[in-house]
């Protein structure tokens, strides 16, 4: 494992994609990220080099510098194990699948809407329509001469719906 950090983030491009309601949370996240990056950049990526030959000449205790050199060069900083990258990548794949499903569903809705637009464009204008044309185009709205209705021609005031309605007092 090694120390890894993203060297540059395009914050302005990221900010354009954030909705207005999330701007405060985004600003807090950016501040926290900048603070972490500053703390990380204070420390060098590799430990400083030591002139061991100089210390071997000037330290009178035999083997002490050799012992320190061996320990210094064998010391490794334990970095945390990356357990989240695979989870994030799996979640990203799931989101891409959902996005594709949404795009396909949206394209189907667009096709259905375009089909309806074409159907409406191909209809006769209402000003040129006869009652028979209206009945053929909108059978659910047209008055059925075989089954007349009473004014105001809504289902709840029709005589067949009078059954079970309480008598007015």
Largest beta-sheet characterization:
none
Q: Would you identify the regions where 5 or more consecutive residues have pLDDT less than 50? A: none
Helix proportion? 40-55%
Assess the beta-strand content as a share of residues.
Answer: under 5%
Radius of gyration from CA coordinates: 39 Å
Overall strand count: 0
* Structure annotation, total helices: 6
Terminal residue distance: 87 Å
Structural class: mainly alpha
N-to-C order of helices and strands: HHHHHH
Q: Mean pLDDT, nearest integer?
A: 84
The shape is rod-shaped
Explain what the structure shows.
This protein has 169 residues and is mostly helical. The protein contains six helices and no strands. The longest helix has 37 residues, at 85-121. The protein is rod-shaped and about 120 Å long. The relative contact order is 0.04. The model has no long low-confidence stretch (mean pLDDT 84).
Question: What is the secondary structure topology, with strand pairs?
Answer:
Elements: H1 11-16, H2 23-42, H3 52-58, H4 64-74, H5 85-121, H6 131-137
Characteristics:
169 residues; mainly alpha; 52% helix; rod-shaped
How would you summarize what this structure contains?
This protein is mostly helical. It is about 50% helix and about 0% strand. The chain starts with 10 loop residues before the first helix and ends in a 32-residue tail after the last helix.
């Amino acid at each position: 494992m090694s120390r890894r950090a993203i060297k540059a983030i395009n914050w302005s491009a990221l900010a354009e994609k954030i909705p207005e309601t999330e701007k405060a949370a985004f600003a807090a996240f950016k501040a926290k990220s900048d603070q972490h990056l500053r703390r990380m950049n204070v420390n060098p990526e590799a430990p400083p080099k030591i002139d061991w030959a100089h210390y071997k000449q000037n330290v009178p205790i035999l083997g002490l510098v050799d012992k320190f050199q061996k320990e210094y060069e064998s010391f490794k900083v334990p970095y945390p194990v990356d357990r989240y990258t695979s989870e994030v990548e799996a979640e990203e794949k799931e989101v891409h699948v959902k996005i594709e499903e949404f795009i396909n569903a949206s394209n189907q809705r667009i096709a259905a809407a375009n089909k309806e637009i074409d159907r409406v464009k191909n209809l006769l204008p209402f000003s040129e329509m006869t009652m028979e044309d209206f009945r053929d185009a909108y059978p659910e709205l047209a008055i059925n001469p075989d089954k007349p209705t009473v004014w105001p021609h809504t289902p709840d005031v029709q005589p067949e719906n009078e059954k079970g309605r309480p008598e007015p007092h």
